[in-house]
Prior knowledge:
mainly alpha; two-stranded antiparallel ribbon; 9 helices
Amino acid sequence: MNYASFWQRFLAGIIDFLIFLPIIFLQNWLEADSKLAGFVLALATAFAFFAYSLCCHAKYGKTLGKHMVGIRVVTVSGQPLGWRRATLRVSVDGVLSILQAIATIWAIAHIPDALYYGVGWQDRIKNLTAYELASLSWVGTATQIWYWSELVVMLLDDKRRALHDYLAGSVVISEGKSQSTVASSV
Length: 186
C-alpha cells in the first residue's frame, strides 16, 4: 500500500476545516442574538462534525478533503472501512465534541445576559468558558491532549497511522501516484 504522507493528511484536514468554516461563522453570528440559537447550534454543530466524518468514512472511505487530496481510509488489510470501523475511528472525537457541546449548553443556560449579549464573539467565548459546567472543565484539556497525541503518534509511525487509526484498525492510503505526487508537493 502507498501510505498517505503527513502533509497529505494535514492538507485534507485543512480542506475539511474550510468546508465547515461557514457553519462556524454562522453559529457565532446567530448565537449572538439568541441563547436558544446558541443551545441548538452547539449541539447541531457537534453532531454535524461527527456525522460528516462518520458517514463519509463509512460510505466512501474519505471526506471531501481526503477526496480532493487523493487519499482514502481503508482497513489495514486494504478493505473498505465500513460503519463499525468508521464509528470506532471517530468515537473519541465524537464523545469529546458532545461533551463540549453539553458544557457550552450549560454555560449558555447559566451565563447572565449582560455577559452574553452585546459583546464580541471572542469575549462571549471567554465568558461562556467561565460558566461551563465545572465537572466538564477537563474536556478542553482532554481534547488538546488527544489531538497532540494523535499528531505525535502519526509523525512517529512509519505508516502515518494516528491513534484513531489504531482504534479502528485503519490506515490512510494514497489513491494514485499522480494525485499523491501533486498533494505531497503542496
